[in-house]
Design brief:
This protein is mainly alpha-helical. The chain has 8 helices and no strands. The chain has one domain. It starts with a helix and ends with a helix.
């Protein structure tokens, strides 16, 4: 594990760890927290598999089509859920980004896992880069004053209310319901998404 593969393995580790934490968050007593954690676990593990260096395992063409179908279904679910809360819009953008990356790789199955086309940054890639850059910066800023944001709603809108409900039912929130940890989880996935888009 050296050379160009090293950043890829670090990305795999980051996404897998984030997905594992999101699975643990699914044990929350708050239903909305469980649903959000499930969607984020899917994103984390999906990104971990997608980030595996091509020199180790180059997925066949049908695997990318499978990715497109799975995350396309997740995007439709996020779109439907967005009727009840703005925070689902971020999940919608994330799943659409996964669909986009899988579709790009499906269209060029012989290209390396993380090769850039060399013809400049496509419009969709550029728009996603701008979105996730803004999201990462905003999330990082909101994580700085932890004491100030502990009882408020995070950038996606769900964490604060879920944690507040957990505090109301149990007195103190469980570690899986703490808003700063949930936000750090989303920040990690935002950074990973940026890294994958840059090298697409």
């Amino acid at each position: 594990m050296h050379g160009p593969a090293s950043p890829g393995w670090l990305l795999v580790a980051l996404c897998a760890a984030t997905g594992a934490y999101c699975l643990l968050r699914m044990r929350s007593a708050v239903e909305e927290q469980r649903r959000t954690a499930g969607a984020e676990a899917l994103m984390g593990f999906g990104m971990a598999v997608m980030a595996v260096p091509a020199a180790v395992a180059a997925p066949p063409h049908w695997a990318w089509l499978g990715y497109t179908a799975v995350f396309g279904a997740a995007a439709l679910r996020a779109l439907w859920a967005a009727r009840t809360g703005r925070h689902h819009l971020h999940h919608l953008v994330g799943t659409c980004a996964m669909v986009y990356m899988a579709a790009v790789m499906a269209a060029a199955p012989s290209a390396p896992h993380h090769a850039h086309g060399g013809a400049g940054v496509p419009l969709v890639t550029g728009a996603l880069l701008l979105y996730f850059t803004a999201y990462v910066l905003l999330s990082g800023f909101r994580l700085l004053p932890v004491a100030a944001v502990a009882g408020t709603t995070g950038p996606t809108g769900s964490t604060g209310s879920a944690a507040a409900a957990a505090r109301g039912s149990a007195g103190t929130p469980g570690w899986g319901d703490r808003p700063e940890l949930s936000q750090a989880c989303r920040l990690s996935m935002g950074i990973a998404m940026l890294a994958m888009l840059v090298t697409l």
